[in-house]
Design goal:
- The structure is a homodimer.
- By secondary structure, chain A is of the alpha+beta class.
- In chain A, 41% of the residues lie in helices and 21% in strands.
- Among the domains of chain A are: 156-296, Bira Bifunctional Protein, Domain 2 (BirA Bifunctional Protein, domain 2), CATH 3.30.930; 341-429, 3-Layer(aba) Sandwich (Rossmann fold), CATH 3.40.50.
- Chain A has helices spanning 18-37, 52-58, 60-66, 85-94, 138-155, 169-179, 184-195, 202-213, 217-225, 229-236, 241-255, 319-328, 351-363, 377-386, 397-402, 420-429, and strands spanning 15-16, 41-42, 44-45, 48-50, 69-71, 77-80, 103-107, 110-112, 124-133, 162-168, 261-263, 277-283, 290-297, 312-318, 341-345, 368-370, 391-395, 404-409, 415-419.
- In chain A, the strands form three sheets. In chain A, strands 2, 7, 8, 9, 10, 11, 12, 13 and 14 form a nine-stranded mixed β-sheet that branches. A five-stranded mixed β-sheet of chain A has the order 16-15-17-18-19, sandwiched between helices. A three-stranded antiparallel β-sheet of chain A has the order 4-6-5, with helices on one face.
- In chain A, helix 2 crosses helix 3 (60-66), helix 5 (138-155) runs parallel beside helix 11 and helix 7 (184-195) packs antiparallel against helix 8 (202-213).
- The first copy, chain A, is elongated and about 95 Å long.
- Chain A starts with 14 loop residues before the first strand and ends with a helix.
- Chains A and B meet through strand 1, helix 1, strand 2, strand 3 and strand 4 of A and strand 1, helix 1, strand 2, strand 3 and strand 4 of B.
- Strand 1 (15-16) of chain A pairs antiparallel with strand 3 of chain B, so a sheet runs across the interface.
């Protein structure tokens, strides 16, 4: 008990002091409002999952090196979830017979990864997860684009500030395997190279492409460099159902006034489990061009649990990136005050009356903080001001006797005389 | 990839399917409303904490045997937080110079314990934590009682259904050490015995008391059996400041209409760190008398981090117990519907129009689900009904051309003709 304890948190994770929690809450509230607008239901699960849930899809190495995995005293291997998709797939598979399709679900879990902490890449963050199960048509794909766009709108980000990039995994497979005649193994490696395109130099990209495709690399580079969907299709010189699909999505978005949806054949998204459409919301800010969030179709994942396939599409969006965007564009609201009014008793004797009054006000929905420090009125008012509380109400002998109060609006200095009854009105109608 | 994956969650934790998440959300919303009413600010932290945070207070054994503790690859010992008090103490201590006192904070963290899963005792649960730092007077103690009572009121539990029990750790120490002349070691053991009083037979309690107190056990039992505060004080035969303190709390609660606050000298609460008032909300249900939640004053805990003492009082309340109480007394609301209206396109051709209409309705705050399954209208309506969506709106050729719709209220079967403009009004004013 004598050693002085450190006040530091565990490495790479965050403490959410009230001002930081308020930002998190603001983001979560905006996400929830958007998803509820589309009729999505919220779910969640424990952060603890059996390690085998990730080994099946990600392989031994990733589980051992990039996740928090440990053995419990019952010899079970447990992982702190690194992403939510395996969990939601597990939950849907567990009740596939009872849950009516389609399933529209969202969640805001915290997820963990074991890596060196660096800017924007913490060991724990929160992530909005949106998934639609049971519909394999373009309608589900389009709904994801509508939701992604609406999320940005509800966060206050102008459509000109970002793009929604689309691509199709099956189109990319078609290009590499059918048109270029490459093997599935080379296709997989080439896909990883495309995913890294903006992180390597052009020279490195070209030489790695040549290593993988040999004499097909000229054609490959021509496909990759095509500036738009039409040029890409022409370069490919053959048709594929994805062209119609992607064109329809862009046109239909345009029809409802969403004009920032574009095709990008270099968009891959990391996960191996994507099977069709992949998409990404991309920040065009000149100093910080980057992916904000994205996802795609994963029609095969649920068959890992046995039973029939269930088509699925979804995406994830992190709280750290979201806060970054809101800060970059000045979209964070001013901190909300912790209470509507501070009751300031002139001595301890008047606290019981203050509590009686507070009970009445709270019953009407007001947020009431009572100063119980016994400090002088001036200090009580200073403290209320520091906490951003808009009104103070001194309580002394006269007030208790006559039930008439002087309520003071701190930012304007204006004082108004009120009764118990008119007080609640003043608190709810005045600007705060 | 070929082995069939299990759909089971990790042992002793819960999946929150939407119907379960809705209950959690209902409880959290009620808790938040109450605490915001008292001017409390919400905070949080990571579930990962350095293991030493718990070793200092709880000892090696508890950390090793009752918590999830593991070593990360940087050789740091990490614990999944078993309770929130050490975390909040750490956070307050870290910013003691910047944070203006008093600090009124609450949080709804998930906490973990490593033990055999059993009814109501899961390995992970959520816990409301309420703490007030910087005030050592009766005013802070009374505020806790007011909050505890208001939490129960906002959850809809009648005051007759439960009691708020009070005791004082310093009064108990006074009784055992000063009045009975027992050593601090025996006092500590006797305190643990009192804590177990209702879990052992009377005979066992008496014989264990005799083992610990010897010839003082008759006096000890007389003190323990005193039926109320006055009798207890008389039995003790000497005065102590706690008597006034406890009497004041009970009288002041009574003054504001809270009539279920009682003294109970057998109330100890588990944690060693309590220093003054301890209290507990106790369910009087004849089939299930038990503690629902509680807490106490812990004025010494922050000095573990060095620097001056900061007086503190707080309590915690779990989600599992809370759900139990709401179920026992039939206080859970009916499940809320996932959307206000289901738009039902008669074929895929009418989905784009439905999306256009949905965008308008969502902009007005409505929750709109579009059926994109391509099923027959009858099946679409059945599905909406299954999901508890109150209204359906079929969309076909006539509707798209004339912009006049028949909206149907499923539970009454009533159909009303509406335009795009009158639709939003119908959705928000009709009973749902």
């Amino acid at each position: 008990m004598e050693k002085k304890l450190s006040t530091e948190s565990y490495k790479g994770v965050r403490d959410f002091y009230p001002e930081d929690f308020a930002v998190l809450e603001y983001i979560f509230t905006s996400w929830r409002k958007t998803l509820k607008g589309f009729g999505y239901e919220e779910y969640n699960a424990s952060v603890l999952e059996p390690a085998e849930l990730y080994r099946a899809k990600s392989g031994e190495e990733i589980v051992n090196e990039q996740t928090y995995t440990f053995t419990d005293r019952g010899d079970r291997e447990v992982t702190l979830r690194p992403e939510m998709t395996p969990t939601v797939a597990r939950m849907v598979a567990a009740r596939r017979r009872e849950l009516p399709l389609p399933i529209r679900w969202f969640s805001i879990p915290n997820v963990f990864r074991y890596e060196k902490p660096q800017r924007g890449r913490l060991r724990e963050h929160f992530q909005l997860n949106v998934d639609l199960f049971g519909v394999d048509s373009i309608e589900a794909d389009f709904e994801m684009i509508l939701i992604a766009s609406n999320i940005m709108k509800n966060l206050g980000v102008d459509e000109e500030k970002y793009e929604i990039k689309l691509n199709s995994r099956s189109l990319m497979d078609f290009m590499m395997q059918t048109v270029l005649g490459l093997s599935p193994e080379i296709t997989h490696k080439l896909g990883k190279l495309i995913d890294r395109k903006n992180k390597v130099t052009r020279a490195d990209f070209e030489s790695e492409a040549e290593l993988l495709c040999g004499n097909k690399s000229t054609a490959f580079l021509k496909f990759i460099d095509a500036p738009d969907l039409t040029t890409f299709q022409k370069a490919l010189g053959t048709s594929h159902e994805s062209f119609d699909h992607l064109e329809s999505l862009i046109r239909r978005a345009d029809d409802v006034g969403i004009e920032n949806v574009v095709f990008d054949q270099t968009l891959m998204r990391g996960f191996d489990y994507y099977t069709g459409l992949v998409f990404e919301v991309f920040d065009k800010h000149p100093d910080n061009r980057r992916a904000l969030f994205g996802g795609g179709r994963y029609d095969d994942l649920l068959s890992l649990f046995g039973g029939d396939k269930i088509p699925a599409i979804g995406f994830g969006m992190g709280d750290v990136t979201t806060r970054d965007v809101l800060e970059t564009y000045g979209l964070l609201p001013k901190t909300l005050s912790v209470a509507d009014v501070a009751l300031c008793p002139l001595s301890f004797d008047f606290i019981p009356y203050a509590q009686h009054l507070a009970i009445k006000l709270r019953a009407e929905g007001a947020r009431v903080s009572i100063d119980i420090t016994g400090k002088r009125l001036g200090d009580q008012i200073k403290n209320a001001d520091k906490k951003g509380i808009p009104f103070v109400l001194p309580i002394g002998e006269d007030e208790v006797k006559n039930k008439v109060f002087k309520i003071k609006h701190l930012s304007t200095g204006k004082e108004v005389e009120v009764t118990e009854d008119s007080l609640i009105e003043t608190l709810t109608t005045k600007e705060k």
